[in-house]
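Before relying on records like the one below, remember that each one covers exactly one chain. Contacts with other chains, cofactors or solvent are not represented anywhere in the record.
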Amino acid sequence: MLSERRLQVLRAIVQDYVGTEEPVGSKALTERHNLGVSPATVRNDMAALEDEGFIAQPHTSAGRIPTDKGYRLFVDKLAGVKPMTGPERRAIQNFLDGAVDLDDVVARTVRLLAQLTRQVAVVQYPSLTRSTVRHVELLSLAPARVMLVLITDTGRVEQRMVDCPAPFGDGPLADLRARLNSRVAGRRFTDVPRLVEDLPEAFDHEDRGTVSTVLSTLLETLVEENEERLMIGGTANLTRFGHDFPLTIRPVLEALEEQVVLLKLLGEAGDSGMTVRIGHENAYEGLNSTSVVSVGYGSGNEAVAKLGVVGPTRMDYPGTMGAVRAVARYVGQILAES
């Protein structure tokens, strides 16, 4: 276990290196921070931190920089989440409140996160499998053609055309709409198949084929494999950190193009807690020089998706964590009110 003083020294090194981009020496630390000890004591503390792998000497200068292990300890023990100021909170709310639909919410969230953190923002669309049904609308387009509209509690809208095996009148269509919503409205998607399996039996024999076709289309919509969608923004921000990436940022850019990689980075959507993955904690080799800060968002207590940022390990962790958490909270409120 590190002593409290050495933890203070590590915190000071991280703060100075993030702020100045320069390796930190003992003289600078004692001048900038009220550590209450002599430069010689600080040098001894820095030597101990280096021996334990929390800081490293990048080249022959006297300065030291944090390692992944040092950043990890900083985040776990030393970094409080920096709260957003009143004006910042109002700016977030005003920017997101203007959204007209789910796509607009996600697009605005990506832009906002990238601007607030000056890093790469990644926002996952709400997952259908973790959503509930708000309403199912059925519209007659032709005697044997119906439009099915599925509306979720997160504001997601899915439309499908259904070609019926026989003409389907307005009366039976209205009956099907009412019976369907009475069973599935407010229920989890995973419960829907069980709730509607005997529904065709409530209709006349000649209408059962059409009812079954409509239900099949609904169930296919609920389980579509392409539901995991992402939006990414602010990639150009990485160019400001060229010297933070060994050799080149190309591996980082290539990784950001892989949706499967990004989904794994964000983590399981059902986990609403804050996650910070630092450097080599990211399983994808191309992202070993980055950190990922993510958190779940949703319209209730359970997260329906994740959002976060990707940036260099030399990151303002308290500020980034505060921005990510604040944006996630406002997005959740918007979904709850939509």
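The chain has twelve helices and ten strands.
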